[in-house]
Write a structure and sequence with these properties.
The structure holds two protein chains of two kinds. Chain A is α/β, with parallel strands linked by helices. In chain A, 37% of the residues lie in helices and 14% in strands. The two termini of chain A are 23 Å apart. In chain A, helix 1 crosses helix 5 and helix 2 packs parallel to helix 3. Chain A has a single domain, classed as Rossmann fold. Helix content of chain B is 38%, strand content 24%. In chain B, strand 20 and strand 21 form a beta hairpin. Chain B starts with 8 loop residues before the first helix and ends in a 16-residue tail after the last strand. Classes of the chains: A alpha/beta, B alpha+beta. Chain A: Keywords: Phosphoprotein. Chain A: InterPro entries: CheY-like_superfamily, Sig_transdc_resp-reg_receiver, TCS_response_regulator.
Chain lengths: 152, 734
């Protein structure tokens, strides 16, 4: 069983495009989608709506930086402060190229920082690279092509 | 100057207050406070006569007050001879002086004519010079002396003749100076006490004073106030050498200081009656008052004018956002304020000048030397004597007046005056003034005109000018302080604006890129999924939408890069441009695989003192432009050359591309300036603006040369490490 990818994205369109990109990258992992930082932490810490979910961390968290309620940096900070989550890969997936954001993310222990390219083809390529890189330990089984959406 | 003159101390030690003798044209009787006869002049012949004379005025003695100086005690008749009597108290003593009486002239007395004629004229005279001339004429009229001089003492005590009245046969001393040593210090003190001094005959034999007690020492008697006091033999010799047998001096005392003298000479002995002397003394007092008042008026007027000038200078500075160096932009009031021919404003290492001054390096060194004195105001009218390098300034700056504006910084304003070669005419060579023979001092023999040339000096800086520049200094400090406050305000405002700008940039980067991405992304998806069903025209339209979105995205990125370039701090290091160029060429070769570009590097390329990242951005822009604008060439050629000049070192990138018209060169480096249509060459029009911003933040210079269809050259230099000025801080960090 492949570990899922946790996608934290508040923007509907970005979400849709990211999912298309993930689809096209042919990753077999399930994609769990949450829409803000609070939900992300609930999922990761198995609290709130997610208190009954199965145990285990996602293969990677694709984390938008600018989020309602609790922003990406705060989520990251909490993840790194939680022993059970500390070694989980987190990738910032964001529109911001601001030096201060990049710097802060790395200070907080992000694994990668990806600025979403404007052009869709490049965007798809970037997402594919990410997925392949962070899910590289799990060779996708033949025929397993579809990512599963759980939350809209 | 003083080295020119012999030591005055020799003369100054002579005990002229206690000569122990009087002049022979009168008689003296000295009483105790109780009226007991203590001493008398030998020309009474005996004590009885002296006592007899004293007894005749004894009833009037109550009129004499101690410390008031001589007072008239009326006229007595002694053995058929009329005598005018004067007296004064000196401590426990009463000194009585007797002179042969002259007929009383009633209302024709000199004192009345003085009030009638002289006083109104005096009041009308506008200048000190005019006052002096009037006084000389009036004294001459009153006394009949053959020569009357009015002179003023300068700062060094030399007497400068202001006005003269002479009769035929008398040498003129108009415009001459009498050396300070003509009048030793103790003599000056006596002139302050006793305002009139007559020597009727320089050939006189002193009459010794005789005491009632055998042990009485004539030299114990202080004759400071006595009109008959015997004169120093040096002075008598001086008079005889000058051909003068009679002399009279009237003191001009202004604000308690011996300002000058009215000095009268005659070839023949001349006695003056008591009334005439009283009139002359009175004249001296009137003149003194008038001089004081004229000087006051003149000084008030001068101060008013100087204040006006200070106001002009200050209002000029306060008008705009100007700094101190703007003072030299309006030189007239600045120079007039100190009556200077040149001025300089020194702000640390920088220097601005106007008028005739030494060169900037010389001023810089001088300013440093003056600043080290730590004085608010410093001046010299003979600079080279105190500051030997000033010798090199030559005639253009023999003197300097300087004010220091800051205690922390070397901020000074300096005024320069040219050398004023003055010819001083002395009444006799002052160097030969005194001689010692036979254990006695002799005054100079000659009073014939002797000229002295004084070099290496400027006209002296007056106290009024010094106080004017002091006032200017206060005003400038006020301006500087106010400006510092304004700067602090601006800085905090700038900080606020920058924070807003940062927030704005952040929003742009995040929120503007997202919709661009969405447009591009969805169009792509539509093209992908529905491409087969769309008309060719729809597909073309969609691709325009996509390109437009992509372009807008690039623009946002470029703008952000540009703004970041202005904000982030520069971290300088040694950058080998050869390595940088090699990397970039490799990068462009990868990107432009379909093209053959002839890269020519003319070694050696310099190593520069720069921020490696920013320098790379600048070079990438310049090389990228060269690659872009040679695209239409069959043989694209890009040449990279090292350049160096006085300002620093840098590179030039020369291409054989489409070039540009030189008249547009100024536009080239502006933000969003494009010289080509967007279809011809892609780009956001921000690359060269970035290059310029990077270079200028390093304190360097950019330039461009071009010719349409021939190619373009872009170059820049950065300051060398030693010359790099601290401009690396972005505004947000300041």
């Amino acid at each position: 069983m492949l570990k899922p990818i946790l996608l934290v994205e508040d923007d509907k369109r970005d979400l849709e495009l990211t999912l298309v990109a993930l689809e096209r990258s042919q990753l077999a992992n399930e994609v769990i989608v949450v829409r803000d930082g609070a939900q992300a932490l609930d999922y990761l810490l198995r609290e709130g709506d997610f208190r009954n979910r199965e145990e285990g961390n996602p293969a990677v968290v694709l984390l938008d930086l600018k989020l309602p309620k609790i922003n990406g940096l705060e989520v990251l900070q909490k993840v790194r402060a939680t022993p059970a989550l500390r070694s989980m890969p987190v990738v910032m997936l964001t529109s911001s190229q601001e030096e201060s954001d990049v710097l802060r993310s790395y200070e907080l222990g992000v694994n990668a920082y990806v600025v979403k390219p404007v052009e869709f083809k490049q965007f798809v390529a970037a997402i594919a690279d990410l997925g392949v890189f962070w899910a590289v330990l799990n060779e996708p089984p033949p025929g397993s092509m579809k990512a599963i959406r759980r939350h809209e | 100057m003083n080295a020119l003159l012999p030591d005055l101390a020799v003369c100054a030690q002579e005990p002229i207050r206690v000569p122990g003798a009087i002049q022979p044209h009168g008689w003296m009787t000295v009483l105790s406070a109780q009226g007991k006869l203590l001493a008398w002049s030998a020309n009474w012949r005996n004590a009885d006569r002296a006592g007899e004379a004293a007894a005749l005025v004894r009833d009037n003695l109550g009129a004499l007050q101690g410390g008031e100086g001589p007072a008239a005690l009326g006229r007595i008749e002694l053995h058929g001879t009329g005598l005018d009597v004067g007296g004064h108290r000196n401590g426990e003593l009463v000194l009585l002086e007797f002179e042969p009486a002259t007929p009383d002239s009633g209302t024709q007395a000199p004192i009345y004519s003085l009030a009638r004629h002289f006083l109104p004229q005096l009041q009308q005279a506008r200048s000190v010079q005019a006052l002096a001339e009037l006084a000389a004429a009036e004294i001459k009229r009153l006394t009949g002396f053959g020569r009357t001089l009015v002179y003023r003492f300068d700062e060094e005590g030399h007497g400068e003749v202001l006005a003269e009245q002479i009769e035929p046969g008398y040498d003129s001393y108009a415009g001459h100076r009498f050396p300070a040593s003509d009048l030793p210090a103790q003599a000056r003190e006596l002139y302050l006490l006793n305002h009139i001094r007559l020597i009727p005959n320089a050939d006189y034999e002193p009459v010794p004073l005789v005491g009632a007690d055998p042990g009485w020492d004539a030299r114990s008697l202080d004759l400071s106030w006595a009109g008959l006091r015997s004169v120093s033999p040096v002075h008598l010799e001086y008079m005889r050498n000058m051909g003068t047998l009679a002399s009279m001096s009237v003191s001009i005392v202004v604000r308690g200081r011996l300002w000058g003298l009215i000095s009268c000479h005659d070839h023949a002995p001349r006695r003056l009656p008591f009334q005439t002397r009283a009139a002359c003394e009175h004249l001296g007092r009137l003149l003194s008052l008038q001089i004081a008042s004229r000087e006051d008026t003149t000084e008030v007027a001068a101060r008013l004018e100087l204040r006006q000038l200070t106001l002009q200078i200050v209002s000029h500075l306060a008008d705009g956002d100007s700094t101190l160096q703007r003072m030299v932009a309006e030189p007239t009031p600045l120079l007039r304020l100190a009556q200077a021919s040149g001025a300089a404003v020194v702000l640390n290492e920088d220097c601005w000048t106007t008028g005739d001054t030494p060169d900037r390096a010389q001023i810089g060194a001088l300013a440093k030397w003056i600043a080290a004195k730590n004085q608010e105001v410093w001046s010299s009218d003979r600079l080279a004597e105190e500051y030997p390098p000033g010798e090199a300034f030559g005639a253009r700056a023999a003197g300097v007046l300087a004010v220091s504006i800051s205690q922390v910084h070397q901020h000074l304003v300096l005024w320069f005056r040219p050398e004023l070669v003055t010819t001083i005419r002395w009444a006799g060579d002052p160097r030969k003034e005194l001689t010692m023979t036979g254990g006695r001092i002799h005054p100079r023999k000659s009073f014939s005109s002797w000229q002295q040339q004084v070099r290496g000096r400027c006209a002296p800086w007056s106290a009024t000018q010094e106080s004017a520049v002091t006032e200017l200094r206060h005003a400038l400090i006020g301006i500087v302080l106010r400006r510092a406050e304004e700067m602090a305000e601006v800085a905090s405002e700038l900080g606020r604006v920058n924070k807003e700008l940062e927030a704005f940039s952040y929003t742009v980067s995040h929120d503007l890129r997202a919709p661009m991405r969405h447009i591009a992304g969805y169009v792509d998806l539509v093209q992908d999924m529905e491409g087969k069903h769309l008309s060719e025209r729809s597909m073309r339209y969609l691709s325009h939408v996509k390109e437009a979105a992509a372009y807008a995205g690039h623009l946002v990125d470029a703008l952000l890069d540009f703004s970041r370039m202005g904000r982030s701090a520069i971290k300088r290091g040694r950058v080998e441009t050869r390595l940088l160029v090699d990397e970039l060429i490799a990068e462009f070769n990868r990107q432009e695989q379909g093209r053959r570009i002839d890269w020519r590097i003319e070694d050696p390329l310099p190593s520069l003192w720069a921020d490696p990242f920013l320098l790379q951005v600048a070079l990438r822009n310049l090389l990228g432009n060269a690659v872009k604008y040679t695209r239409t060439r069959e043989k694209a050629q890009v040449r990279i050359v090292g350049v160096r000049d006085a300002a620093g070192e840098g590179l030039e990138i020369v291409d054989n591309g489409v070039g540009f018209q030189q008249k547009y060169v100024a536009k080239l480096f502006g933000v969003f300036q494009r010289l080509h249509q967007a279809e011809e060459f892609e780009g956001t029009g921000i690359g060269l603006a970035s290059v310029r911003r990077i270079v200028e933040r390093h304190g360097g210079t950019v330039w461009a040369r071009g010719e349409p269809d021939q190619g373009a050259t872009f170059g820049f230099t950065l300051p060398r490490k030693a010359d790099a000025r601290p401009r690396e801080e972005g505004p947000t960090r300041s």
